[in-house]
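Researcher: Good morning. I'm working through a list of sequences from a screen, and I'd like to move beyond sequence-only analysis. For each chain I'm collecting a predicted structure so we can compare shapes side by side. This is the next one on the list. No need for commentary yet; just the structure.
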Amino acid sequence: MRGDILACYGNDFLSRAIEQVTGSPISHIAVKISDNFIMETGWSGVKLSKISRLSNKYIILRDENFTEGQREQFVSFVINAVNIKFDYKLFFGIALNKMFGLNTNWDNKNKYICNELVVEAYKSLGINILSWIEDQNIVPGDLLNCNRFKHLKPDGTLL
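Model: Good morning. Structure tokens for this chain:
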């Protein structure tokens, strides 16, 4: 469904490293904008990608509290973020925090990491979905613990 959040996992080195450092079963977040395309934040920034690149290695997080208007605003925010740069400082700051307990607070509000794009899209609707976590410490796996979402398999059936 358009606006679904895809909580991704993988077997490559970087995915496993992120999962290990964050203590989470997932390493990446993307947003479904159509049957064939997602918006995601990668090393080059926010971009459009084919959903097939994920090889069904994801859990669908579906927000059933969304009105249709909110869902469209959410998707519009994500689409309009295209070409915003990747926040390398925040990415490495979170790693330092998780590995060594260092509070870096290196968040650049003009750049995004994958989960930050989703959190900011919700904030644009006046919804703070992870209010119990400081923004600079949010990792992809934190979205799994948010009670707004129904967890589904890639085929749309319940987990």
